[in-house]
């Protein structure tokens, strides 16, 4: 037996190394072998005197075998150790999210993020394309979304004030290019049109869809805004359906994210049309009205063969359709666990562990790595319904690619291991030592934080956290912080 640590991330399911080496040219791929008995994304990589083979039941499995082989080559060059490496993911939904609404990132920057994620076997790119500060999807037949919704007059996120106008919008061709770029890397794009809140950009384009039909400005600051889509206006759903037609035309994957987070109900409480809608549908309150609205959208998308995903606030009405996948990011009670416990799929995006826009002092690498996504309150049945993790980078405070790379890497790599490898393989010391060897693979691709920044000491943790919230102007969130 060869006693060598393999510098592979995510840690493979099972490896046996009998001893001995094969000289194998750097560029030569593994020989592909079809084996229907292997799990869909799994593979069996063998290095022996006969060569290098990758058995798999799907092209995705072969792709993941190739990523592993790449890492072996970084470690061993042309002298590969004999091995039998059986690998498969723990969870099927392995997502990273980029918020392109608060700040805009070019297609080439996104491609670099996608390349980096593919190295670590992520398989979903959740593309947050709409929010209060900008509409970023130029959809066929709806040029007004780009013309009126994609440029804000200035930016003022926390203490950073920029008086210049700021905008950006992906053309349909660019979005299609990202879809096919991802697919070549076995990544599905999940576009998000966040509704019925976080829609200032949309309401700026269509003020008639706001309660009271009031004019709404694109926002220059972060936050939660009261103007939301009027659920009682009979024009709202037809417009939403038209927009989703545009999304479905471009994004041909199985999932669409329909948002549902942070929806203040002030306007709905005061709006005669929304109140009339609640009464005519026999709903109890505004939370049920949100559930109803999400269901209308999800129903329309279901007809088009799509599965909808929605943030956990959509569960509050208790009437969300069962086939909508809910995504937990922050909640006081146990609605998300209850949802999974009663047989429904759940994605975990835990604010305290998976939100990469916060400083390393608040969310150190070790904390990210050790967090198992089986959240409190899950029964064994509920645990079976957790389909994976989505790790977001929100970009109010991430103005450029340099910052995005620094915030995401290496923390995305810790999430990648958590969502692929078994819970039993969690060993931070071992992960860190592999990471030090693996991370230079990102050198020409994305910026990343240097080792001394990964796990700040307690004093640094407090000072980074306090100064982040002081700068970002979000004291409320700091008060709510927990370990
Ligand atoms: C969220 O962070 N508002 C989903
Ligand atoms: Zn209304």
Task: Tell me what the structure shows.
The chain has 483 residues and is an alpha/beta fold. The protein contains 18 helices and 21 strands. An 8-stranded parallel β-barrel has the order 8-9-16-17-18-19-20-21, surrounded by 6 helices. A 5-stranded mixed beta sheet has the order 1-7-4-5-3, with helices on one face. β19, α10 (335-341) and β20 form a beta-alpha-beta unit. α2 (107-119) runs parallel beside α4 (172-184) and α6 crosses α9 (286-303). The radius of gyration is 23 Å and the shape is globular. The two termini are 42 Å apart. Mean pLDDT is 96; it is low at 479-483. The chain binds acetamide and zinc ion. Acetamide is lined by residues 261-262, 311, 329.
């Amino acid at each position: 037996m060869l006693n060598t640590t393999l510098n592979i991330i995510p840690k493979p399911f099972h490896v046996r190394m009998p001893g001995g080496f094969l000289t194998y040219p750097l560029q030569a791929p593994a020989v592909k072998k079809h084996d229907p008995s292997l799990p869909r994304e799994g593979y069996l990589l063998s290095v022996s005197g006969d060569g290098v083979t990758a058995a798999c039941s799907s092209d995705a499995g072969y792709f993941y075998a190739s990523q592993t082989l790449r890492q072996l080559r970084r470690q061993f060059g042309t002298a590969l150790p004999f091995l039998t490496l059986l690998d498969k993911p723990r969870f099927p939904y392995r997502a990273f999210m980029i918020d392109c609404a608060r700040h805009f990132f070019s297609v080439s920057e996104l491609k670099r993020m996608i390349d980096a994620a593919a190295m670590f076997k992520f398989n979903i790119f959740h593309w947050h394309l709409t929010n209060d500060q900008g509409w970023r999807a130029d959809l066929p037949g709806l040029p007004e979304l780009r013309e009126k919704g994609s440029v804000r007059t200035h930016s003022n996120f926390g203490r950073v004030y920029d008086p210049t106008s700021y905008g950006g919008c992906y053309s349909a061709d660019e979005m299609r290019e990202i879809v096919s770029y991802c697919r070549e890397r076995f990544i599905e794009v999940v576009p998000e049109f966040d509704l019925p809140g976080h829609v200032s950009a949309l309401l700026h384009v269509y003020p008639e869809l706001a309660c009271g039909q009031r004019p709404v400005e694109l926002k220059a600051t972060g936050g939660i805004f009261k103007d939301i889509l009027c659920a009682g206006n009979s024009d709202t759903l037809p417009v939403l359906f038209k927009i989703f037609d545009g999304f479905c035309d471009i994004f041909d994957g199985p999932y669409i994210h329909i948002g549902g987070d942070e929806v203040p109900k002030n306007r709905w409480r005061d709006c005669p049309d929304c109140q009339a809608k609640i009464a005519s549908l026999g709903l109890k309150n505004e939370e049920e009205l949100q559930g109803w609205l999400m269901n209308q959208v999800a129903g329309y998308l279901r007809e088009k063969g799509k599965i909808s995903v929605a943030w956990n606030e959509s569960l509050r009405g208790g009437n969300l359709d069962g086939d909508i996948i809910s995504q937990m990011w922050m909640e006081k009670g146990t609605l998300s666990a209850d949802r999974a416990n009663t047989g429904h799929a759940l994605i975990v995006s835990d604010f305290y562990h998976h939100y990469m826009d916060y400083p390393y002092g608040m969310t150190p690498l070790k904390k990210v790595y050790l967090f198992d996504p089986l959240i409190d309150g899950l029964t064994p049945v509920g645990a079976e319904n957790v389909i994976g993790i989505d790790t977001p980078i929100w970009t109010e405070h991430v103005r450029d690619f340099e910052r995005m790379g620094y915030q995401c890497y290496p923390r995305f790599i810790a999430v990648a291991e958590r969502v692929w490898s078994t819970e039993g393989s969690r060993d931070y010391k071992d992960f860190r030592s592999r990471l030090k060897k693996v991370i230079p693979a990102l050198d020409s691709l994305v910026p990343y934080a240097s080792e001394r920044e990964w796990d700040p000491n307690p004093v640094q943790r407090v000072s980074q956290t306090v100064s982040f919230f002081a700068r970002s102007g979000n004291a409320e969130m700091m008060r709510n912080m927990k370990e």
